[in-house]
Each structure stands twice: as C-alpha cells, then as structure tokens.
Amino acid sequence: MHRTAYLCLVIATLSWGGNAVAGKLALGHISPMMLTFWRWAIAVAIIFAISLPQLRKDWPVVRKRLPILIFYGVIGYTTFNAVLYTALKYTTAINVAIEQAGIPMLIFLINFVLFRTRVSLAQVFGFSLTLVGVALTASHGDLASLLDLTLNFGDALMLIAVVAYAVYTVSLRWKPVIDWRTLMAIPALFALLTTVPLVLWEHAGDAALWPDTRGWVIALYTALFASLLAQVLYIKGVEGIGPNRASLFINLIPVFGTLLSVAIIGEELQFFHIAALVLALGGIAIAEKGKPASP
C-alpha cells in the first residue's frame, strides 16, 4: 500500500517537474493564462469522454458533495497555478521555488492545529533536508546567494498560492467516496470555468498569445500529465499515506524540474543537481522511517 503511494507521488511530482520545463518552453508560443485555459479545456474533454457512464452512476453522491468538489477545482487546481504564474511576473524563480517548499510545513501546522496530528523529530529533520535540496536547486549550488534575496509583491502572491495548496491538500481528507474519474472530472470542470475570466483579463491587457504548434503540444502535455495524471496520483498518494507525509514529496518538484531541464533543454548537469536529489530523497526516506507510531 505504502509502496504504491510512494510510486504515485514520485510520478506526480515528476509530471509537475516536467510542467516547469513546459512553462519555460512555452515562452513565445502560448501565454500563461491561455496555457492554463487550454490545459484544463483539454483535460476536461478527455476526462468527461471516458467518465460519462461513471458520472451518471456517481451523481447522487456528487450532488450532495458538490461544494467540496468545486472547492478542489477552484482552490487546488486554478488558484494555485494562476497565482504562481502571476507571482513570477514580480519575483524570481528562486524565490518561488523556496516559498513553494514551505507547503509541507504549512500542511504539518494546519494538521496539528486542527487535528492534533503529531510530527516526529525525524520528520522535521527530513523536511529540513528536502528544503536544503530545494535551496541548492534554486540557488544553482550557491547557498550564499540566498542571503541577497529580497521580498516583493510577487512573494506576497506566492504566500497566497502556498496557503491555497496546503489547504487543498488538507481538505482531501473530506473527499467523497466516488470513482477516481468522477473525483477528477468535477473539479477539473470548475477549474476550467474559473480560468475563463483569467484569459479575458489577459486578453484585455493585450498579453494573450494564441498557441502555435509548439504551444498546442505543451498544452497537451500539461493536460495529460500535469493536470490529469499528476492530480489523480497525488490524491491517491495522500489517500495512501496521509497529507503530512505525502506533502514532503512536493519538494521533489523543483529538483525534478531542474534535472528534466538538463535532459530536455540541454542545460549542463552540475554536482549540485545530484546533491539536491539525494538530499530531497534522503529527507523523505528519513521522515518516512521516523514517522510517529499510530495511536
């Protein structure tokens, strides 16, 4: 059971790491909000095409639990990504990577305050190691450069994104007992609906860029992997080992993103890339080994 959850979370974070590379490749080929819109439009078309019979079967439960499913789509799917994309206009990718690494600790805090979920010293140490791995990745191996970082409006926006995804992850404990296709389809639909005003806003500012051929390929990748596959597997991972333990895997995203940049874009492989991956995986292993015993 745990091994399955680990595999789900690794594949999910690998897919999201690829999403970071897709974002880099998208520059000049499709604008951020246009990418967000088509990402969910394609995802909704696919998931509904394979889910209609199951959706009809699950509709009595969906109707009763619609608010939480809408919440997942609006907060977990759209708000986090839209705010993150906007934050990158005002702050650096280093700041965003470091701030995103705060999601696991915030999940720990929310779970402790609301549910008194215990955290062991080993988990804190493991989280710290994964954070160092993220810092190495974000600073390109020069940790001293982090001392020169400054905070601005973009960092304030990232705080909203971090809170949004932490709350989304914790709220998965209340997900209804329905088929995974339905659990993906309904939030995805509302994620799509909430991206419409974002595209209109981008268009109003003359910043919208219709996708060219590469833009469509990137949109298809984000729909299949970053939207459908990653979200379903992340939910499965949280279901398998709980939000506290699953959230640590989030810190693999910038590490995987950097390694994929090396493989796909041709960036040079550095020693700190390997060190960051070892620290991130080692931190997760230590946290898992030292998790609190079940009461």
Automatic annotation (TrEMBL):
Q: Which Pfam families match?
A: EamA
Topological type in the membrane: Multi-pass membrane protein
Q: Where in the cell is it found?
A: Cell membrane
GO cellular component terms? plasma membrane
Question: What residues form the membrane-spanning segments?
Answer: 36-55, 67-88, 94-114, 121-139, 151-170, 182-201, 213-234, 246-265, 271-287
Q: Does the keyword Nucleotide-binding apply?
A: no
Transmembrane listed as a keyword:
yes
Source superkingdom = Bacteria
What residues does the EamA domain cover?
A: 5-137, 153-286
* Keyword field: Cell membrane, Membrane, Transmembrane, Transmembrane helix
Quote the InterPro entries the UniProt record gives.
AA-Vitamin_Transporters, EamA_dom, EmrE-like
This chain belongs to the protein called EamA domain-containing protein
Origin species, per record, is Pseudorhizobium banfieldiae
